[in-house]
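FAQ: What does the model actually see?

It sees only this:
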Amino acid sequence: MKKTVIAVCSLVLTVLALCTVLSVQVERLMTAEINVVRASKAGIRDAVTGEEREYADTLPQAALLGDEGGDYVLALEKTDGVWGEEHTVRRLPVTLIEAMDGNRFASEALAYHPNGFALYPSHPLQDGETVQVRGN
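And it is asked to produce this:
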């Protein structure tokens, strides 16, 4: 009888361990994947005046999102999660200063986010959503 109880308990513990591992894998598969881009310095020549302007805070145009609330980017944050470090995105409203040559834009306060910004998410993201960084 004692051996049967030990065998059943061992089986239950093994099944629980397998379910835990499986649930972590399912969660990872359901987490949105993103590329990360960091703000950089860029210059542009004004087509009318020929004047060269340089901006410290620029991002690719693909990082700029917008809705009825205005223009925004998704800033990447590192947080402590249940299984260690996690990445989440935070909606950061931006004031568009200038669109540059069709593939970059300038805005204020982009350089203050050292973890970068979400680019090409695998699906639309919500503020505070946990994401998986491609290549990690």
